[in-house]
Design a protein that fits this description.
Layout: H1 3-16, H2 29-36, H3 40-52, E1 56-59, E2 63-66, H4 71-86, H5 89-111, H6 114-125, H7 133-150, H8 154-162, H9 168-177, H10 181-197, H11 201-223, H12 245-248
Antiparallel strand pairs: 1-2
Length: about 250
């Protein structure tokens, strides 16, 4: 089990067992991490994931609380998870992105001007060293929108913009559940921008392809049913030494 998944499960067990009830405030981060035997970082990621699912509510400057757990509050999050695992619309959106976006990025490499490059650099710099998942996703959408606009093909830009909607929540969910997803996304954006800055169309296309493939690979794994437990091989009973003396001494 991944560290974040383990942290999520432990908080869930506290709620199911009644140790945490609707409206309760969670203990201080350091205290709860020590109580559950978790690192503060993994606990923080678990809280972020559970807040996306409307199970926890983070109140800035006040603390983190268990939500009302009312059915109508939880159903929106449940619907999202079901969409992620069962509805192939999200996967189709990423598959279309995998076709169109590398082409748009390659075209942008040949047409982007210095002003647009400066704006892209400033956009990435605004993220800072440790952006939240929500900040990253908003920045990610704008980054790709500007690259599509730099391709010089308005229809291509419109097509990509029209399919970004179904992918937003999947991007957020990846950010809060996949380790290093935020840092990896930032690094890939930097690599795409480096290729754009040198007007290297093929390298820009390659990095855009890798960037989307990483998200698609995660999405496919997230939608897969859990693997069955491996079957244990049948026990082999060792032969007893000397159990067949006559055979040992038998002549051909």
């Amino acid at each position: 089990m991944a560290v974040t998944d383990e942290a999520i499960d432990r908080i869930r067990q506290m709620i199911v067992s009644g140790r945490l009830r609707p409206g309760d405030r969670l203990p201080r981060e350091a205290d709860l991490a020590a109580q559950l035997g978790l690192s503060r970082n993994s606990l923080r990621e678990a809280v972020r994931a559970l807040s996306v699912l409307n199970i926890l509510t983070v109140r800035q400057g006040d603390g983190t609380y268990v939500s009302s757990l009312a059915p109508d509050v939880l159903m929106e999050a449940v619907a999202f998870v079901l969409d992620l695992h069962q509805d192939d619309t999200i996967m189709q959106a990423f598959q279309v992105r995998a076709i169109l976006e590398p082409a748009a990025t390659a075209m942008a490499a040949g047409r982007v001007d210095e002003d647009a490059l400066a704006e892209l650099h400033a956009l990435l710099d605004r993220l800072g060293p440790a952006p939240s998942v929500e900040e990253l996703v908003a920045n990610d959408l704008e980054f790709h929108r500007r690259i599509a606009a730099a391709s010089g093909v308005p229809l291509l830009c419109s097509l990509l913009d029209s399919i970004s909607g179904p992918t937003v929540r999947a991007r957020i969910w990846r950010g809060v559940t996949q380790q290093d997803a935020v840092a990896r996304t930032v690094d890939e954006h930097r690599s795409i921008l480096d290729a754009l800055a040198t007007h290297d169309a093929e390298t820009a296309r390659a990095w855009a392809t890798v960037h989307i493939a990483n998200v698609t690979r995660w999405l496919r794994a997230a939608g897969d049913p859990p693997a069955p437990a491996p079957r244990r091989p049948p026990a082999v009973r060792p032969a007893r030494i000397g159990s067949d003396r006559s055979a040992a001494g038998r002549q051909p």
